[in-house]
Amino acid sequence: MAREQYVKQLDLLRESIFSLGEIVELAFKDSMVAVIDLDVELAAKTLALEAEVNNLEEEIESSIFDILALQQPMASDLRLVVSALKITADLRRILGLSMNIAKIPGKIEGKHIKPLVDTKKMSDIATYMLENSLQAFKTQDVELARVAASRDEEVDMLFYAVWVELIEMMAKDTSIISKATYLLFLIRYIERIADHCCNICESVIYLATAEKIKLN
Amino acid sequence: MTKGVQNVSQVQIKVDNLNLWYGEKQALKNISMQIPKNSVTALIGPSGCGKSTFLRCLNRMNDLVKNCRIEGKISIEEKDIYGPDVDVVDLRKKVGMVFQKPNPFPMSIFDNVAYGPRIHGADRKDLDSIVEQALRSAAIWEETSDRLKSPALSLSGGQQQRLCIARTLAVKPRTILFDEPTSALDPISTARIEDLIMDLKKDYTIVIVTHNMQQAARISDYTGFFLMGKLIEFGQTRQIFQNPQEQSTEDYITGRFG
Amino acid sequence: MGLSSKTSEKIAFSLLILATLIVAGFVLIILGYIILNGYGAINLEFITQMPNRMMTEGGIYPAIVGTIYLIIGSMSVALPIGVMAAIYLNEYAGESRTTWLIEMAINNLAGTPSVVFGLFGLALFVKYFGFGPSILSASLTLALLILPVIIRSTEEALITVPKEYRESSLALGVSKWQTIRHVVLPAAIPGIITGSVLSIGRVAGETAPILFTGAAYFLPRLPDSVYSQFMALPYHLFVLATAGTNIAKTRPIQYGTALVLLIIVLSLNLVAVLIRRHYRNKLKI
User: Fold this and answer.
1) Is C5 a residue whose pLDDT tops 60?
2) A214 in a domain, yes or no?
3) Of C90, C267, C62, C68, nearest in space to C176 by CA
4) Residues of B near C (CB-CB distance < 8 A)?
């Protein structure tokens, strides 16, 4: 096998993206559990993940620059490096949004104004999208990427449903506005996370087929 | 001033204020650098910039050139190689060199590798193992083990170059100089030689002159940029290729030179 | 108006072919003439017997032996000296005024008429060193004659050895002399042999240098030491053709002698070609 070190470098890059994906996935899931249960302790633990992600992200970026500057990647290697750069950015945004979610429990006193049923559904779908977009990246499975991205529509519909519901509740009872606003933010965050998952799926499809498509 | 690469754990080659003239023409101007041990150092620059001339100072191949005059100091393993007590022949045993064109001797594969050790007085009964080990280290044993007696010139260009590397390794140098070792080879052979060079740095200090910038980027740990006889910049390869400190380095690396 | 390039191409090509045909034709005519006239004279007796009856009968055995002695004698002197001189000039001497002078001298030596060598040999070897007219004197004279040829061709052969061989050997920590001995000389051997073959042809064929230094007009016995006089084929031929008692009667013997000389030179050439090919095969693919 020629260019052994370079091939190792690319493998290492792939591995790093996997680990980044795992941490971000964990951060999102835990932040959702924390916000639904209003578990401040779990929220704090989740917030602590950011430093780890920052380090990993920095490592990935510098290895991408090294590969671009020193190895002149071509064809599928080039697509891998470009996709890796984009996926890293998307994962970084998903982590940022998860951090925002994890900050909510600390701001809500007492109970939620309503049981978070549809919000939970949204987050389940977003989690599914995140898991499967990362899985699709691992296996370069174009079909799985398309299926995962197609769930974005459900998230959007739930987002509008909850949105309208919250607006109506606030119109009826102005005392809940403060708490309801956090929930509005929350669903907005989840909706954004689903969008970033679509971007990851796009990158996976570009990586596997060199086709540039819009999925959301 | 010594450029780049400071605080290196172990320095293999130390150059201080090296100047070189061919007759009246000054080919190297005030070169100072420290080449770290067990690393690959690439020397890049446009044709005639002095990189090959500099390389040939390190094993005193310039001694063969008439009217060549050298000032300054080069120490390898802390020994001044231009000192009065230095045996050039002995120096070249410790500092091997691989050339641009694959140039095996017109003898068998075995004899090519055994050539150096034989002349240096290796025991006849050790030759087989010396040759095998050198061919293995040069990643060409698999292709040649069943035809050691065939002429070296029957090998392909890339194989010949790896044989030349094996021939150099058989003398057991500690530093190996490569003078554009892949410029006569196809991409696949080039990739194999590059892999080999990266592999060899475990046991050897390697200095390679290349006019292929991408090659320098791919395989080296440190890069020196030469221009008109001067060492413009020397530092870690990733730094030179991502954020060079000198404008002329940037111009050369980005292809905007001239 | 010039010729069209096609026409001039045709004319040039025809002229070249013509020149080649002329050369080849003459070679064939000479060879054929000698063979046709000479083969009748050749038999076992002719090459193993002494000449008798004032050379009008008998064989040419002593002349064959003498010529072979000359070849061996002159080559064993000229080859080592010539090769060593060429090595010095090409590998060690560098470019200086002295080297240039030596090279010029060698060139001039190569152009000197062979009769001058003969006279020089007479003065130096026969008289001054007192070797007398002998195989030794004649061999040394012939050695001088072919020395420039051997030096030239050895130098040529050394120059064609790629400089990469030298450099990579030196870069392996091998000394200059070891490099010359183990790499440069073996690679130059085919070229050196080619040069030697040309010299052997000259040694076998020259008359003038041996005329003054030891060749005998008629000597129906074999030389018994290096100080003996001897017979040689070219001189024998000359004598038969110009000074014999009965030129017409010895005509078949003349052609026979010429043919034997030709066969000796050609077979030596053949041997050299074979040796050269052997080395080429060993060196190259």
Assistant:
1) yes
2) no
3) C90
4) 59, 61, 64, 66, 89-94, 96-97, 99, 101, 103, 105-107, 115-116, 119-120, 151, 153-154, 164, 167-168, 171
* 3-state DSSP assignment of residue B176: strand
Judge: C172–B151 Cβ closer than 8 Å, yes or no. Answer: no
Q: What are B108's strand-pairing partners?
A: B151
Q: What is the pLDDT of residues C126-172, one digit of tens each?
A: 989 988 889 899 999 999 999 999 999 999 999 989 888 999 999 99
The one-letter amino acid at B251: D
Rounded to a whole number of angstroms, the distance from the CA of B24 to the nearest CA of chain C is 18
In a domain, A216, yes or no: no
User: Do the Cβ atoms of B153 and C169 come within 8 Å?
Assistant: no
For C44-63, the pLDDT digits (tens) are 778 777 776 655 667 788 88
C85/C143 Cα distance (integer angstroms)? 14
Q: Which residue segment(s) compose the domain that A70 sits in?
A: 2-209
Instruction: List pLDDT tens digits, range A44-88.
Output: 999 999 999 999 999 999 999 999 988 888 888 999 999 999 999
CATH (domain of A32): 1.20.58.220
Q: With touching defined as 3+ CB pairs under 8 A, do chains B and A touch? A: yes
Interface test with A, best of B40, B189, B194 (most A CBs within 10 A): B194
Q: How many domains are contained in chain A?
A: 1
Would you say residue A56 lies in a domain? yes
Q: Is residue A66 part of a domain?
A: yes
Q: ipTM greater than 0.90, yes or no? A: no
Give the contacts of A3 (CB within 8 A, at least 6 positions apart): B191, B194, B195, B218
